[in-house]
Amino acid sequence: MSTKKSQAPISPWIKRIIEETEKEGSEEWPIVLLKGESRHAVWVVSAWLGVDMKGIPGQACRLLERFLCARTRQLVTESTSTEELKRIQRSINEQIIFFLACCILLASKMNTSTSNFNSHTIQRYMQLHGLEISVDKINAMEHDVFSSLGYQISLFSSVEAAELISLEVGLSSKMIEHVGTLTNLAEYRRDELVRLVKKSSTLFPLLKKPENASLRTLHISAGTVATGIFYHLHGEPVSSSTFIKRLKHLTRLSSTFLRFMADAIAQVITKSIDDDDSEEPVTKKKKKSSKV
Question: Tell me, which GO biological process terms does this entry list (predicted)?
Fold first, then answer.
């Protein structure tokens, strides 16, 4: 008779995160990530709007990336001339702040944090940029963005997913808070993480679409949980191997993948802290500013 203990069942929430991760890899066109200053702008605008919590900036980044991809695909298939293509592209560039604000609005609506953020807040923000846009137009653009995304937005941000996974793994409430901070920083440097993945001969083949290798919500979330575990930030009497075993079971990711992600995230977060040493960290509330 076997004495091996059966693994605890996976909660419906974790199953939902895994399902959404599978959908993230179904895009026909590769998603071009926002980089550097563009990502920083998302965090700055989110802070000004008062919704820079629970992974909203990171999810807004993803929505904007998907929206721009959808618009680009539409341009390529519908434009009749090079001049028309350039004209429409200029129009997109001129409205990028508007698109971003709508993506932040959509991300905030999916988030568990409470907020009074709405279309009127966006209207005031756009006025600071010298743009008079009606609430009706903002609502219409929000719907346009949503429809361009196929009316599909992840139920959880990467921060929320990481916190749920940490809870299921059995980490302490203090550690769950640390994991949330790590995930926010990892999202801030997501473009750097993708670069490391593409350079890795170990991790690259583990992704289902290596030609368009990308990190998905589950990869980021599980990776930050693994970072906390491997780097002994959990402060628990239970051994790291026990936590990692639980993490593997919950996420269906290999030890190799989790170890690499932990090291990669630690590397980019350290770089982020070093780069921002003389600036205000992105994890802290920024003073409201009209500049992006």
Answer: reciprocal meiotic recombination
> Is residue 22 predicted with pLDDT exceeding 70?
yes
Here the tokens at position 72 are 């680009």
Domain that holds residue 167: 155-275
Dist CA 280 CA 292 (whole Å): 15
Number of residues assigned to the chain? 292
Tokens 């630690």 belong to 266
Let me know if residue 14 belongs to a domain.
Answer: no
Q: Which two tokens stand for residue 264?
A: 């990669």
95 falls within a domain: yes
Contacts of 70-79 with C-beta under 8 Å, sequence gap 24+, read 70/148, 70/149, 71/148, 72/29, 73/29, 74/148
- Summarize pLDDT for 48-79 with one digit per residue, the tens: 888 988 899 999 999 999 898 888 777 777 66
Residue 249, domain CATH = 1.10.472
Identify the H or E element spanning 162: helix 158-169
